[in-house]
Amino acid sequence: MAEQEKVAEKEKMTIVVFSGELDKALAAFMIATTGASMGMEVSMFFTFWGLNILKKDKGVSGGKGFMKKMLNFMNRGGPKRLKLSKLHMFGLGTGMMKKLMQQHALLPIDEFIIVAKDLGVKMIPCSTSCGLMGLEEEDFCEGVGSMAGAAFFINEARQSKINLFI
Amino acid sequence: MKADYTIDCMGLYCPVPIIKTAQKMKELKTGEVLEVVADDKGIKQDMPAWAQTTGNEFLGAEESGGEIKVYVKKK
Fold this sequence. Notes:
The structure holds two protein chains of two kinds. By secondary structure, chain A is an alpha/beta fold.
């Protein structure tokens, strides 16, 4: 019985990470790392606010021109600076949630990025969003792959058994 | 149940025990058994699901107090 159910070829999973909030990022990384641990080939495609998750923990990211600079100033991002989608309460709620996560030995997002990288999860920033927001590949954390566009995503998604939009 | 290796996942929540299991199983030889000690109740459902997907054999779970021991055999 086990023989029949065994996965012959590597199954694929694709996740679009559109949101940039702590809770949604956590869900995305939990599913991605679990999928990779179950032998799946996982691609995470980061677009729009989702790019904030991958931003390096440094000063304000680049961007040429006033509007892009303002955008990155207002929207600094970085795995340690994400907010909850609910009950952020000027940082109080998010702070408490981070404390709870720590108490329950849940990995913070910056560590999840490293685990995902080690498990071979592909983390791909969307090139159009990056262009729009003035982000370059060097603005992202280590382990983040090269930028790609929608056609790349569709081609991955087309072959995937699991497709998620978070 | 007898096991060749054991990993301690007490206090760790899903998906960390599964990630640790997957990493540890790479070191095992075919036929060897891994014991995972955890207290996240989800592991009783998660480990058989992991084994089914990866083609390994789930041997069973033992629960005493809040401690859950699950066993998987490398195929």
